[in-house]
TrEMBL record:
Alphabetized GO MF terms: ATP binding
Protein name, entry field: ABC transporter ATP-binding protein
PANTHER family linked to this entry: ABC TRANSPORTER ATP-BINDING PROTEIN ALBC-RELATED
Signal peptide positions (record): none
Entry keyword annotation includes Transport: yes
Organism: Duganella zoogloeoides
Annotated PROSITE patterns: ABC_TRANSPORTER_2 (PS50893)
The ABC transporter domain, residue ranges: 11-236
A Pfam entry, by short name: ABC_tran
Keywords, alphabetical: ATP-binding, Cell membrane, Membrane, Nucleotide-binding, Transport
Protein backbone atom coordinates (compact mmCIF):
# COMPACT_ATOMS: atom_id res chain seq x y z
CA UNK A 1 0.00 0.00 0.00
CA UNK A 2 3.02 2.22 -0.51
CA UNK A 3 2.59 5.07 -3.02
CA UNK A 4 6.13 4.86 -4.39
CA UNK A 5 5.90 1.13 -5.01
CA UNK A 6 2.66 1.31 -6.89
CA UNK A 7 2.59 3.71 -9.85
CA UNK A 8 -0.63 2.07 -11.13
CA UNK A 9 -2.51 2.92 -7.97
CA UNK A 10 -6.22 3.56 -8.36
CA UNK A 11 -6.21 5.93 -5.40
CA UNK A 12 -3.20 7.81 -4.02
CA UNK A 13 -3.78 10.14 -1.09
CA UNK A 14 -0.87 12.23 0.12
CA UNK A 15 -1.40 14.27 3.24
CA UNK A 16 -5.12 14.90 2.97
CA UNK A 17 -6.40 17.21 5.66
CA UNK A 18 -10.04 18.16 6.09
CA UNK A 19 -11.20 20.68 8.66
CA UNK A 20 -14.74 21.53 9.64
CA UNK A 21 -14.21 24.82 11.43
CA UNK A 22 -11.87 24.03 14.31
CA UNK A 23 -12.48 20.28 14.05
CA UNK A 24 -9.97 18.25 12.04
CA UNK A 25 -11.89 15.38 10.43
CA UNK A 26 -8.89 14.11 8.40
CA UNK A 27 -5.42 14.78 9.71
CA UNK A 28 -2.66 14.44 7.11
CA UNK A 29 -3.92 11.14 5.75
CA UNK A 30 -1.85 9.22 3.18
CA UNK A 31 -2.61 5.86 1.58
CA UNK A 32 -2.52 4.01 -1.70
CA UNK A 33 -5.03 1.56 -3.13
CA UNK A 34 -4.09 -0.59 -6.09
CA UNK A 35 -6.31 -2.05 -8.83
CA UNK A 36 -8.13 -5.28 -8.08
CA UNK A 37 -8.19 -4.65 -4.32
CA UNK A 38 -11.17 -4.78 -1.97
CA UNK A 39 -10.35 -2.39 0.84
CA UNK A 40 -12.22 -2.16 4.13
CA UNK A 41 -12.06 1.31 5.68
CA UNK A 42 -12.87 0.64 9.30
CA UNK A 43 -13.16 3.08 12.19
CA UNK A 44 -15.37 4.12 15.08
CA UNK A 45 -18.18 6.66 14.70
CA UNK A 46 -16.91 10.06 13.68
CA UNK A 47 -13.40 8.82 12.81
CA UNK A 48 -13.43 10.19 9.26
CA UNK A 49 -14.60 7.30 7.06
CA UNK A 50 -17.35 9.14 5.23
CA UNK A 51 -15.17 12.23 4.92
CA UNK A 52 -12.50 10.10 3.23
CA UNK A 53 -15.04 8.67 0.81
CA UNK A 54 -16.43 12.14 0.10
CA UNK A 55 -12.92 13.35 -0.71
CA UNK A 56 -12.42 10.40 -3.09
CA UNK A 57 -15.74 11.17 -4.78
CA UNK A 58 -15.00 14.88 -5.11
CA UNK A 59 -17.89 15.77 -2.80
CA UNK A 60 -15.91 17.88 -0.36
CA UNK A 61 -12.96 20.28 -0.55
CA UNK A 62 -9.78 19.42 1.38
CA UNK A 63 -6.08 20.18 1.55
CA UNK A 64 -3.41 17.81 0.26
CA UNK A 65 -2.97 15.60 -2.75
CA UNK A 66 -5.44 13.05 -4.03
CA UNK A 67 -5.41 11.16 -7.28
CA UNK A 68 -8.31 8.85 -8.14
CA UNK A 69 -7.96 6.88 -11.38
CA UNK A 70 -5.37 9.45 -12.37
CA UNK A 71 -7.69 12.40 -11.79
CA UNK A 72 -8.07 15.05 -9.13
CA UNK A 73 -11.61 14.60 -7.77
CA UNK A 74 -11.81 18.32 -6.93
CA UNK A 75 -11.34 19.52 -10.48
CA UNK A 76 -12.25 16.51 -12.63
CA UNK A 77 -15.23 15.11 -10.80
CA UNK A 78 -17.48 14.80 -13.85
CA UNK A 79 -14.97 12.78 -15.86
CA UNK A 80 -14.09 10.72 -12.83
CA UNK A 81 -17.71 9.76 -12.25
CA UNK A 82 -17.75 7.87 -15.58
CA UNK A 83 -15.56 5.27 -13.93
CA UNK A 84 -16.85 5.39 -10.36
CA UNK A 85 -19.98 3.96 -8.81
CA UNK A 86 -21.09 4.97 -5.32
CA UNK A 87 -23.62 3.33 -3.04
CA UNK A 88 -24.63 4.59 0.36
CA UNK A 89 -27.09 2.46 2.27
CA UNK A 90 -29.18 0.16 0.06
CA UNK A 91 -32.18 0.62 2.32
CA UNK A 92 -32.97 4.15 1.13
CA UNK A 93 -34.57 3.62 -2.29
CA UNK A 94 -37.90 5.55 -2.35
CA UNK A 95 -40.97 3.38 -1.70
CA UNK A 96 -42.85 4.50 -4.80
CA UNK A 97 -40.02 3.62 -7.18
CA UNK A 98 -40.74 0.81 -9.65
CA UNK A 99 -38.06 -1.56 -10.91
CA UNK A 100 -38.35 -0.21 -14.45
CA UNK A 101 -38.15 3.43 -13.21
CA UNK A 102 -34.99 2.64 -11.27
CA UNK A 103 -33.44 1.16 -14.42
CA UNK A 104 -34.52 4.17 -16.51
CA UNK A 105 -33.08 6.52 -13.92
CA UNK A 106 -29.66 4.90 -13.76
CA UNK A 107 -29.59 4.51 -17.55
CA UNK A 108 -30.19 8.26 -17.75
CA UNK A 109 -27.49 9.31 -15.32
CA UNK A 110 -24.72 6.78 -15.82
CA UNK A 111 -22.92 6.54 -19.17
CA UNK A 112 -21.47 3.09 -18.40
CA UNK A 113 -24.81 1.51 -17.47
CA UNK A 114 -25.65 -1.63 -19.42
CA UNK A 115 -29.45 -1.91 -19.34
CA UNK A 116 -29.50 -5.42 -20.79
CA UNK A 117 -27.17 -6.63 -18.07
CA UNK A 118 -29.38 -5.16 -15.33
CA UNK A 119 -32.47 -6.74 -16.90
CA UNK A 120 -30.75 -10.10 -17.19
CA UNK A 121 -29.86 -10.03 -13.51
CA UNK A 122 -33.39 -9.00 -12.55
CA UNK A 123 -34.77 -11.90 -14.59
CA UNK A 124 -32.95 -14.27 -12.24
CA UNK A 125 -34.84 -12.82 -9.24
CA UNK A 126 -38.50 -12.53 -8.24
CA UNK A 127 -38.52 -8.86 -9.18
CA UNK A 128 -40.82 -7.73 -12.00
CA UNK A 129 -40.57 -4.44 -13.94
CA UNK A 130 -43.69 -2.93 -12.38
CA UNK A 131 -42.96 -3.92 -8.81
CA UNK A 132 -42.61 -0.98 -6.40
CA UNK A 133 -39.99 -0.79 -3.69
CA UNK A 134 -42.87 -0.63 -1.16
CA UNK A 135 -43.92 -4.16 -2.16
CA UNK A 136 -40.43 -5.65 -1.96
CA UNK A 137 -38.84 -7.56 0.86
CA UNK A 138 -35.54 -6.12 2.05
CA UNK A 139 -33.73 -8.86 0.20
CA UNK A 140 -35.48 -7.90 -3.03
CA UNK A 141 -34.39 -4.29 -2.51
CA UNK A 142 -30.84 -5.56 -2.23
CA UNK A 143 -31.27 -7.49 -5.46
CA UNK A 144 -32.56 -4.40 -7.23
CA UNK A 145 -29.63 -2.40 -5.96
CA UNK A 146 -27.19 -5.06 -7.03
CA UNK A 147 -28.77 -5.28 -10.47
CA UNK A 148 -28.25 -1.55 -10.89
CA UNK A 149 -24.70 -1.56 -9.56
CA UNK A 150 -23.49 -4.65 -11.34
CA UNK A 151 -24.63 -3.30 -14.68
CA UNK A 152 -22.38 -0.28 -14.29
CA UNK A 153 -18.96 -0.95 -15.72
CA UNK A 154 -17.17 1.14 -13.09
CA UNK A 155 -13.50 0.78 -12.30
CA UNK A 156 -14.01 1.94 -8.73
CA UNK A 157 -16.95 1.05 -6.54
CA UNK A 158 -17.33 3.02 -3.31
CA UNK A 159 -19.66 1.56 -0.70
CA UNK A 160 -20.54 3.52 2.45
CA UNK A 161 -22.26 1.24 4.98
CA UNK A 162 -24.10 -0.43 2.10
CA UNK A 163 -26.12 -2.92 4.09
CA UNK A 164 -27.38 -0.69 6.90
CA UNK A 165 -30.83 -1.78 8.03
CA UNK A 166 -30.72 -5.21 6.39
CA UNK A 167 -30.87 -8.45 8.32
CA UNK A 168 -27.94 -10.81 8.45
CA UNK A 169 -29.14 -13.08 5.63
CA UNK A 170 -29.41 -10.25 3.17
CA UNK A 171 -26.17 -8.66 4.31
CA UNK A 172 -24.40 -11.93 3.60
CA UNK A 173 -26.18 -12.24 0.27
CA UNK A 174 -25.15 -8.73 -0.70
CA UNK A 175 -21.44 -9.37 -0.11
CA UNK A 176 -21.55 -12.82 -1.66
CA UNK A 177 -23.15 -11.51 -4.84
CA UNK A 178 -20.77 -8.59 -4.92
CA UNK A 179 -17.84 -10.94 -4.87
CA UNK A 180 -19.22 -13.59 -7.22
CA UNK A 181 -21.15 -11.54 -9.77
CA UNK A 182 -19.46 -8.17 -9.76
CA UNK A 183 -15.87 -8.15 -8.69
CA UNK A 184 -12.96 -8.87 -10.99
CA UNK A 185 -9.32 -7.89 -11.07
CA UNK A 186 -9.95 -4.79 -13.15
CA UNK A 187 -12.19 -3.38 -10.45
CA UNK A 188 -11.46 -1.86 -7.09
CA UNK A 189 -13.87 -1.67 -4.17
CA UNK A 190 -13.62 0.61 -1.14
CA UNK A 191 -16.09 -0.20 1.57
CA UNK A 192 -16.90 1.19 5.01
CA UNK A 193 -18.92 -0.82 7.46
CA UNK A 194 -19.38 -1.39 11.16
CA UNK A 195 -20.06 -5.07 10.53
CA UNK A 196 -16.44 -6.06 10.06
CA UNK A 197 -17.00 -9.78 10.66
CA UNK A 198 -19.27 -9.93 7.63
CA UNK A 199 -16.84 -8.35 5.20
CA UNK A 200 -13.52 -9.60 6.43
CA UNK A 201 -13.58 -12.69 4.23
CA UNK A 202 -13.97 -10.62 1.06
CA UNK A 203 -11.36 -7.94 1.87
CA UNK A 204 -7.88 -7.92 0.37
CA UNK A 205 -6.77 -4.91 2.43
CA UNK A 206 -7.58 -3.22 5.70
CA UNK A 207 -7.36 0.42 6.68
CA UNK A 208 -8.15 1.40 10.24
CA UNK A 209 -8.93 5.05 10.84
CA UNK A 210 -9.15 6.75 14.21
CA UNK A 211 -9.56 10.48 14.95
CA UNK A 212 -8.89 11.33 11.31
CA UNK A 213 -5.65 9.35 11.13
CA UNK A 214 -4.87 6.04 9.43
CA UNK A 215 -3.59 3.82 12.23
CA UNK A 216 -3.23 0.63 10.19
CA UNK A 217 -2.98 0.06 6.45
CA UNK A 218 -2.07 -3.45 5.41
CA UNK A 219 -3.07 -6.26 3.10
CA UNK A 220 -4.87 -9.18 4.74
CA UNK A 221 -1.77 -11.27 4.02
CA UNK A 222 0.37 -8.77 5.92
CA UNK A 223 -2.14 -8.76 8.77
CA UNK A 224 -1.87 -12.56 8.92
CA UNK A 225 1.92 -12.40 9.03
CA UNK A 226 2.16 -9.52 11.45
CA UNK A 227 -0.46 -10.28 14.10
CA UNK A 228 -0.92 -13.41 16.14
CA UNK A 229 -3.38 -14.27 18.85
CA UNK A 230 -2.37 -16.79 21.47
CA UNK A 231 -4.56 -18.73 23.86
CA UNK A 232 -1.97 -18.67 26.63
CA UNK A 233 -1.74 -21.64 29.01
CA UNK A 234 -2.00 -20.44 32.64
CA UNK A 235 1.61 -21.25 33.54
CA UNK A 236 2.90 -18.99 30.71
CA UNK A 237 0.72 -15.93 31.35
CA UNK A 238 3.41 -13.93 33.16
CA UNK A 239 6.17 -14.62 30.63
CA UNK A 240 3.84 -14.00 27.64
CA UNK A 241 2.56 -10.80 29.21
CA UNK A 242 6.13 -9.58 29.63
CA UNK A 243 6.52 -9.65 25.80
CA UNK A 244 4.04 -6.76 25.59
CA UNK A 245 0.90 -7.95 23.81
CA UNK A 246 -1.15 -5.14 22.24
CA UNK A 247 -4.21 -6.56 23.96
CA UNK A 248 -5.11 -9.13 26.53
CA UNK A 249 -8.54 -10.54 27.34
CA UNK A 250 -9.99 -13.54 29.10
CA UNK A 251 -12.10 -16.09 27.23
CA UNK A 252 -13.59 -18.98 29.23
CA UNK A 253 -11.02 -18.42 31.95
CA UNK A 254 -8.09 -18.47 29.52
CA UNK A 255 -5.88 -15.54 28.68
CA UNK A 256 -5.96 -14.51 25.03
CA UNK A 257 -3.13 -12.18 24.01
CA UNK A 258 -2.70 -10.40 20.72
CA UNK A 259 0.86 -9.74 19.55
CA UNK A 260 2.24 -7.50 16.85
CA UNK A 261 5.37 -8.74 15.07
CA UNK A 262 6.24 -11.33 17.68
CA UNK A 263 8.22 -14.50 17.06
CA UNK A 264 5.63 -17.18 16.23
CA UNK A 265 7.84 -20.04 17.29
CA UNK A 266 8.17 -18.50 20.71
CA UNK A 267 4.44 -17.74 20.89
CA UNK A 268 3.63 -21.35 20.05
CA UNK A 269 5.33 -22.43 23.27
CA UNK A 270 2.69 -20.47 25.25
CA UNK A 271 -0.37 -22.10 23.68
CA UNK A 272 -2.48 -22.25 20.53
CA UNK A 273 -1.60 -19.52 18.00
CA UNK A 274 -4.00 -18.19 15.37
CA UNK A 275 -4.58 -15.09 13.24
CA UNK A 276 -6.91 -12.69 15.07
CA UNK A 277 -10.28 -11.73 13.63
CA UNK A 278 -10.38 -8.24 12.15
CA UNK A 279 -12.87 -7.26 14.85
CA UNK A 280 -10.47 -8.27 17.64
CA UNK A 281 -7.58 -6.57 15.88
CA UNK A 282 -9.68 -3.45 15.52
CA UNK A 283 -10.57 -3.34 19.21
CA UNK A 284 -6.93 -3.91 20.18
CA UNK A 285 -5.64 -1.25 17.77
CA UNK A 286 -8.17 1.35 18.90
CA UNK A 287 -7.31 0.80 22.55
CA UNK A 288 -3.70 1.68 21.80
CA UNK A 289 -4.58 5.01 20.21
CA UNK A 290 -4.64 8.32 22.10
CA UNK A 291 -8.25 9.58 22.26
N1 LIG B 1 -20.57 18.71 7.45
C1 LIG B 1 -19.89 18.62 8.60
N2 LIG B 1 -19.76 19.71 9.40
C2 LIG B 1 -19.06 19.65 10.54
N3 LIG B 1 -18.46 18.54 11.00
C3 LIG B 1 -18.56 17.44 10.26
C4 LIG B 1 -19.28 17.41 9.03
N4 LIG B 1 -19.20 16.16 8.51
C5 LIG B 1 -18.47 15.43 9.38
N5 LIG B 1 -18.07 16.19 10.42
C6 LIG B 1 -17.24 15.75 11.56
O1 LIG B 1 -16.07 15.14 11.06
C7 LIG B 1 -15.76 13.97 11.78
C8 LIG B 1 -15.68 12.78 10.85
O2 LIG B 1 -16.97 12.51 10.34
P1 LIG B 1 -17.28 11.31 9.34
O3 LIG B 1 -18.71 11.44 8.89
O4 LIG B 1 -16.24 11.26 8.30
O5 LIG B 1 -17.12 10.06 10.30
P2 LIG B 1 -17.45 8.53 10.05
O6 LIG B 1 -16.19 7.80 10.40
O7 LIG B 1 -18.00 8.32 8.70
O8 LIG B 1 -18.52 8.26 11.16
P3 LIG B 1 -19.80 7.24 11.22
O9 LIG B 1 -19.24 5.88 11.39
O10 LIG B 1 -20.49 7.71 12.45
O11 LIG B 1 -20.58 7.44 9.97
C9 LIG B 1 -16.82 13.84 12.87
O12 LIG B 1 -16.31 14.37 14.06
C10 LIG B 1 -17.95 14.68 12.36
O13 LIG B 1 -18.67 15.24 13.43
Amino acid sequence: MNAELNPDAVITATGITKRYGKHTALDNVSFTIGAGRIVGLVGPNGSGKTTTLKAILGLTPFEGGLSVLGRDPRTERELLMNDVCFIADVAILPKWLKVKDAIDFVAGVHPRFDRARAEQYIATTKLTPNMKVAAMSKGMVVQLHLALVMAIDAKLLVLDEPTLGLDILYRKQFYQNLLEDYFDEQKTIVITTHQIEEVEHILSDLMFIENGRIVLAASMDEVGERYAEVMVEPQFVAVASALGPISQRTVFGKSVMLFDRADRTQLATFGEVRTPSVADLFVATMKGQPQ
